[in-house]
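Colleagues,

For the teaching module next term, I've prepared a clean inverse folding example: a structure given as tokens, and then the sequence designed for it. I'd like students to try predicting residues themselves before seeing the answer, so please don't circulate the second half yet.
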């Protein structure tokens, strides 16, 4: 007789397969949404304001990469955010450490990890891409590069974040525990009406993580991937689970083989399910965009929302999910 874990895993896989058949099977494939104007997809409800900024810029004739960067910067600068930018929750020692990456219309990439004191890590990632022979700079090296390029240091740990951290310390005994309710990243992928693709991803990472922890968000191929000839994908959720399967790259490779975007997200999630005995409390959400303008979204659990902008049409959607339970 299967033990409980094996049973849950098998049930989840079976649920995934039947959902797959139901939602992205032959019937659904015939109505894969496709759009020919500017299209922007981003994670969570705060994606709405990122999309609005990016769309406004695209409609005014800006370069796609500029629109993508400025879009996520709106979220990085929002002082009410607790999971992106300097107002994000700190690690378990009280340090706010930021991760971000960006990919341009040619598939070039830049990334910063474990960056402190900088309001716009995504802009530093862009400079890494454009001004250095490297793809990724980390920690003090990334900070020095940012300061050398005119960025100013700014204090993290807002009063709100400090209070949450103090409470967390009292309750949890210093044990880092990524769960569905202590993270959320802005991942934004976009296609211009001319068929170009670009994307950006930026986060303060999982709250109360260990000092030095870096998640999937700044890892090219995990939190974000753009292949100009195929499509783009981005991820949110507990980064460790995304990194183990190179989430965004996996989705783009599946699209390269002809798998529709939503089904590609499902297939990547199935790899996560297959690989882990337990996914209790774990949320992962993926967004995928094919260069043709078709797109998809899928999450492990209900609760993952994404912002979709098609020209002047901006809307927040609930992503379909593999498991039936709520996020927490
Ligand atoms: N993926 C991010 C991380 O693991 C968090 C999130 O997207 O919710 O740092």
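(Answer key — instructors only)
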């Amino acid at each position: 007789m299967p033990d409980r874990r094996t049973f849950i895993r098998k049930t989840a896989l079976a649920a995934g397969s039947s959902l797959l058949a139901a939602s992205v099977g032959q019937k659904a494939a015939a109505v894969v949404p496709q759009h020919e104007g500017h299209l922007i997809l981003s994670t969570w409800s705060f994606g709405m304001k990122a999309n609005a900024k990016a769309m406004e810029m695209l409609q005014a004739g800006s370069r796609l990469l500029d629109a993508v960067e400025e879009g996520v910067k709106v979220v990085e600068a929002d002082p009410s955010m607790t999971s992106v930018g300097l107002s994000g929750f700190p690690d378990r020692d009280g340090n706010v450490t930021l991760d971000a990456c960006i990919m341009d219309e040619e598939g070039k990439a830049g990334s910063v990890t474990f960056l402190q004191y900088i309001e716009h890590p995504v802009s530093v990632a862009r400079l890494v891409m454009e001004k250095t022979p490297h793809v990724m700079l980390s920690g003090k090296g990334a900070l020095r590069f940012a300061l050398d390029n005119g960025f100013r240091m700014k204090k993290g740990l807002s009063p709100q974040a400090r209070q949450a951290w103090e409470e967390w310390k009292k309750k949890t005994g210093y044990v880092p525990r990524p769960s569905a309710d202590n993270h959320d990243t802005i991942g934004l992928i976009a296609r211009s009406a001319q068929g170009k693709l670009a994307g950006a991803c930026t986060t303060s990472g999982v709250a109360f993580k260990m000092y030095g922890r870096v998640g999937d968000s700044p890892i090219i191929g995990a939190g974000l991937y753009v292949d100009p000839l195929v499509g783009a994908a981005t991820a949110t959720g507990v980064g460790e689970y995304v990194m183990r399967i190179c989430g965004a790259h996996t989705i783009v490779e599946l699209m390269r083989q002809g798998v529709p975007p939503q089904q590609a997200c499902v297939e990547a999630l199935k790899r996560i399910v297959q690989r882990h005995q337990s996914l209790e409390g774990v949320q992962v959400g993926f967004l995928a965009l094919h260069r043709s303008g078709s797109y998809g979204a899928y999450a492990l659990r209900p609760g993952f929302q994404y912002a979709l902008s098609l020209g002047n049409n901006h809307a927040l959607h609930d992503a379909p999910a593999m498991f039936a339970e709520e996020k927490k």
